[in-house]
Design goal:
- By secondary structure, this protein is mainly α.
- The protein has one domain.
- It contains seven helices and five strands; from the N terminus they run H-H-H-E-E-E-E-E-H-H-H-H.
- The strands form two sheets. Strands 3-4-5 form a three-stranded antiparallel sheet, with no helix packed on it. Strands 1-2 form a two-stranded antiparallel ribbon.
- Helix 2 crosses helix 6.
- 23% of the residues are buried.
- The N terminus is likely disordered.
Length: 224
């Protein structure tokens, strides 16, 4: 009985300690900038928004973190200007920041807080709305063009997107005027017309089981 009582007291004490720890954990506030840094690094933002260089020390190309998230370098060469739409969806430029698509050339944006060429004049509200709606400047501009994976990022919570913005506002500002996309206006106009349909597809439930096949009617009994 003494052993049983001791076990009961030990279990109760552990449960109480766990509850106390859980309560304390809820009171801990996560730094939005640190949270945003984790999300940016985990989401591969540097893969497209930071120019790549060949790193001799490791023998492979890597993002040049001295230009972290500054977008396509001003004056840098485009990716290949011609593409075979029958065989290729995209051709990537030499520094991984320009993309030739069947309808034109797209450049990675400057995400640093530079006021003239980056996100310095963006507000948190505009940033969140842009990612959620897939519209540059949050509905006031053109659709955000491929290969930017905003359809994936729009599934983040508002708090996570605000944390990403907080981190982007905290990094060094780099003055780098990125060229406008070389996409014909009729293409942009066409994407504007179909954007609502795209949002409907993205908002549709995914993973739902396919509708059941109609039950087969029982065969009629043979007449004798």
């Amino acid at each position: 009985m003494v052993l049983v009582g001791a076990l009961v007291l030990a279990t109760a004490g552990a449960a109480a300690a766990k509850g106390k720890d859980a309560k304390g954990a809820k009171e801990v506030k996560v730094d939005p900038v640190q949270r945003g840094m984790y999300l940016v690094m985990h989401s591969g933002c540097n893969d497209c928004h930071t120019p790549w260089v060949f790193n001799k020390d490791v023998g492979m190309p890597m993002p040049d973190m001295t230009r972290m998230l500054s977008g396509h370098p001003a004056g840098a060469a485009d990716s290949a200007t011609k593409i075979n739409p029958k065989t290729d969806l995209a051709l990537i430029g030499g520094d991984f920041t320009s993309f030739t698509l069947p309808f034109g050339v797209v450049y990675s944006a400057n995400l640093t807080p530079d006021k003239e060429t980056g996100l310095g004049n963006w507000t948190e509200e505009v940033f969140v709305k842009a990612i959620k709606t897939g519209m540059h400047l949050g509905a006031e501009g053109r659709p955000i063009l491929p290969p930017m994976p905003w359809p994936d990022f729009r599934n983040m919570t508002d708090d996570d997107l605000k944390a990403v913005f907080a981190f982007l506002k905290s990094i060094p500002a780099i003055h780098n005027p990125v060229a406008d996309p070389k996409v014909p206006k009729p293409v942009i106009d066409g994407l504007m017309k179909t954007h609502g349909k795209l949002l409907e597809i993205l908002d549709a439930p995914h993973g739902a089981p396919p509708p059941a096949a109609p039950a087969e009617k029982p065969a009629a009994p043979e007449k004798k």
